[in-house]
Amino acid sequence: xxxxxxxxxxxxxxxxxxxxxxxxxxxxxxxxxxxxxxxxxxxxxxxxxxxxxxxxxxxxxxxxxxxxxxxxxxxxxxxxxxxxxxxxxxxxxxxxxxxxxxxxxxxxxxxxxxxxxxxxxxxxxxxxxxxxxxxxxxxxxxxxxxxxxxxxxxxxxxxxxxxxxxxxxxxxxxxxxxxxxxxxxxxxxxxxxxxxxxxxxxxxxxxxxxxxxxxxxxxxxxxxxxxxxxxxxxxxxxxxxxxxxxxxxxxxxxxxxxxxxxxxxxxxxxxxxxxxxxxxxxxxxxxxxxxxxxxxxxxxxxxxxxxxxxxxxxxxxxxxxxxxxxxxxxxxxxxxxxxxxxxxxxxxxxxxxxxxxxxxxxxxxxxxxxx
Length: 371
Known about the structure:
This protein is an alpha+beta fold.
């Protein structure tokens, strides 16, 4: 069966997101083949096209963003339960950050006199942000991501699709408490985008250990200063809503002096340790960079379908981290190996699959030659 060739967490999430028809195994195989055909030719998958078409990927999806968020989290809980003993022997860190998915389609505008939006367009508009990650973008989709860093491995634990102007700081607190019940972590790492007094107070109130990179202000430079010896200053005022312990210092990187400022509730003998721990935050940037390379470029403005593509790329990344133990493969090699196994199954079962899905000849020859 095709499900034996795909990581169980990937197949479980996909099954929960796609309608359970009698030919669901065929559907999943067809989905992967269409995605690879699009990736191989540097094409995007449209939400509308003539049949047979890339819509084979999408029309079976019968789910919601909320259901996918929950399904992804359930797969993470399974992993955490299975690895509980191993995780208890290593230091674990949680990294929270935002990532953007480029949107190049038509930018839907607000309703105005003579211009009315359908319910579908109104729903899509809620998720399209004005920020443009790349040149040529008309907007973007924004996702809140929680990642686990343990030993030399990383794993995405939870993904949330964010609406425009959505307030989600309380959601972060609630999620961190839930994660804390599943795995013991040393602390949570945040970038400057989360620098907020009331948010810091909520972290302290809920006894969540954290390091948050602070925005450097004139007061920090004038009153405290930045030196090679790292220092901590208690009860630093953060806006009008909060206070926290401020850690300041500087270091030379590639001959350039860098100033660093952090808010934390951790205690350290050497405050430079805060900077060393914070460096683990770059793990989530590496995750984003890697998954950008394997994520399907979907032209649809349907937020549910966009979420499906994002979650699928994170799940494949997670599978790579777990399976790739001894013979260190790149993510690209891992994905190709995964595809070749699925192709082998497809070629054996459906000789007419190439014509049915209109997979380009060079790709099909590549599949056949690899078997």
